[in-house]
Predict the structure.
Amino acid sequence: MARPLASVRVVLEPEFERTAALLGVPAMEAGAAIVARGQRSRIPVSRDGSYGRAAGYAKSKIHVERGIDALGLYWDVGTGDQALTPDGTNYPVLLELGTPPHEIRSKGNYPLRNRKTGQVFGKVVHHPGTQPHPWLRAALADIAGRVLP
């Protein structure tokens, strides 16, 4: 590949960069709202709830948050760190990606049990894992090919 004989570096005025970024705000807001609606319509909701929380808990935590960092404006869409399991795991990510087979162990000298049915399992359960439900990625596809305001 031939080397260029000359090069040009374009430097934008900071005020122009700020103005250009702000012109994109309406489109970004619209896109974020579409993705949030898509997430709310797709996130799996159990009939019984989970981790002692009511059904729809993770769905109720989906929100849009706008911020600014060193790279500029950004929009976070989803549950963030607001829908966690008791041990601090991001529960909606488990729904999105699924889980591999794993052990569930009692945290005390008592067996695991289903309080609703009274079924007793023992101190260790070999959970088969869960299938993924790609609700996050599907919601992103809602803005593919769209022209936003």
Remarks:
- The beta strands are 63-69, 72-78, 102-105, 112-113, 120-122, 124-127.
- The longest helix spans residues 25-42.
- Residues 15-97+132-143 form one domain.
- The helical segments are 14-23, 25-42, 57-60, 91-97, 135-140.
